[in-house]
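Morning!

As promised:
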Amino acid sequence: MVIRMKTILLIEDEKNILLVYSKLLKKAGYRVLTAENGIKGLEIAQESKPDLIILDLLIPKLDGLVILETLKEEENTADIPVVIISANSNQDSIENGLKAGAENYLVKPVSRNELMLEIKKHI
Amino acid sequence: MRKIVNSLAGKIFLGYFLIILILLLVVVWAIINFNQLSSAINNIMEENYRSIQASEQMIEAIERQDSAILLIIGGQGQDGIQAFRRQEQEFLKWYSRAEDNITIPEEESILENLNSSYTEYLLNFDHIRELQPDQRQEYYNYEYMNIFTGTKEIIRELRSVNQDTMIQAQQEADMRAVNARVSTVIISIIGIIIAVISGLYLSKKIISPVRLLQSGIKKVAAKNFNQKLTVNSSDEIGELTSEFNKMIDKLQEYENVNVRKLLEEKEKSEAIVNHISSPLLVTDSENRIIMFNQESKNLLKLTESVIGKHILEVINNKKLFEIIVNSEKNNNTENRAEKKEAPILNLGQESDDRFFKVLSNQVKNNQGETKFTVTLLEDITRLKEIDRLKSDFISTVSHEFRTPLTSITMALNMLAAEDVGDINSEQQELISSSLEDCERLTNLVEDLLDLSRMESGSIELDIRPFNIKNLVEKTISHFHEQAKNKSVNLEFENIPEKLAVQADPNKISWVISNLVGNALRYTSAGDKISISAVQRGSKAYLEVFDTGMGIKSEHLEKIFDKFFRSDNNTSETGSGLGLAIAKEIITAHQGRIWAESSRGEWTKFTFTLPTAGNRKKDGDKNENNTAD
């Protein structure tokens, strides 16, 4: 029985974060896809339908919240769990994120264990 | 002398003197008249009467001589001659008296006539004696009789002349008496008139300056100092008038000085008020506007006509009105917990925000009554803007810090968890110290963000009633282990079971955590940390007390400043923002936080929170319980 590797899409413009996250997730046994801007992130999400999307809100070209709303509107991507990890800790921002359908909203900085626990909740 | 005459007493004396003089004149005049009258009577009595008497005697004598002649004619010659000679002697005696008493011019010629007539009479007597007795009768009848009657006629003439003179003198005396009466009456009338006129003149002369003085005093009483009184007499009234003028001068000088001083003071205060670059408003005890400066005029669109009007009539801002009305209550509060910071109002027009700190102060008189209220509006729009910019800046910087911190922390976490390969103990040590600093930096960023959010007021408080005791219990549960490790006795005591406050429990929990955390940091083995709460009025007082090293008295206020660290703070992990955030949180709850300490003995942090709803009664009971 072949266990299909779970795919996680990281939409994040910070190269260092992408590097650290993808290294961590790969080590943990996930297939990691990365997108450095909003448009690319949305494309990948729609094409490859990952098991989980880790989304930053402040990203170039397309706002994270718009990506989230778009994904939730489309039938074939609406079920993909999305976890927001943002530097923005404003209550409004958190509320908007959760209202738009995010599973959780984590405020940076997020520790390794925190991230791992969160991922395990959804896949 | 002049002085006496010009003096008031002199004038009065002059009046009397005039009357005395007139009286004297009348007396003298009367005496003169009396004298004249008496001399006129004397003339009658003495001069004429004597002549008349002489005439009478002479007539008697000559008649007796005539009888003596008849005796001779009758034959008794010797007796007749003797009688004749005797009567001759008598006649001559009276004649010489009459001669001595000539008072009327005619008398002399009459006496001369009498003399010659009597001489002829005597010669005829001799002639009779020489005649024969029979011839004697005839001679007597024809010759002698004529001479006799002639002489007698002359004497009678003398008598009648004197009688006429006497009548004349009597008439003259009568006339003099009449004249004396009339002239005395006239002189008296003239005297009375003069006395009345001079009396009127003098009294007028005395009274008129008094009248002038009186009207002058009335004018001065009405503060009309411009009109001087004219000094037109040199008596006591004149002196009084000139003294009065001097007094007016002094009064005017005094008045001028006072008015000038008042004007100066007024100008000064107006200048000061107008040069205050913040809007200033002065209202009286009835809240009517009595003064404002140019800045107020511009800000509140005031005109001069609003002076005296009620403030709400002019400035339709109930909040501002309430602040001004309640200024006394706020300023009188000595209690630190009750003292509020100056309220801030947005007094901008339409969309143009202008924030003012309202500093309202009541000015009282000696009786403690409010005379007026001075309200200063301190423009803090710019400060607020700078504050906002600062908060924005801190917020941005913090956000920017978060992303790299995430990757660093995560990378270090992975290294430490040996996700990317084995590490030796030395490497492990370096990684964990780096992680510690990452945590510190993360905490600082979080605190900075919290603070900037609190300061900008962008954080919303989740205010609801909750039980203090439960919250304290829950909050300090995280510290029990830490306290146990340090051998510090951490407990809560005297917290009323039912004491509930109206606040954001998460924020208050944060504050308690911070205070307890601080206390733990500055206490050592054997020390005690206790948390207590009481209710006073509508406020709950929460205290965090420790027997730690204490705080220097000069630092008691500063410890709530951002990044303030006391000398003995050896902590590496604190951001230096904890108390600043705590203060922001408590202030946002309309409470106050302060510290008291005795160096080396104890420290006590107290903060106040509004109690929840209608719990006052319970609270009072609880307060009594705690007192027990």
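The first helix of chain A runs from residue 15 to 27.

Hope this helps with the figure draft.
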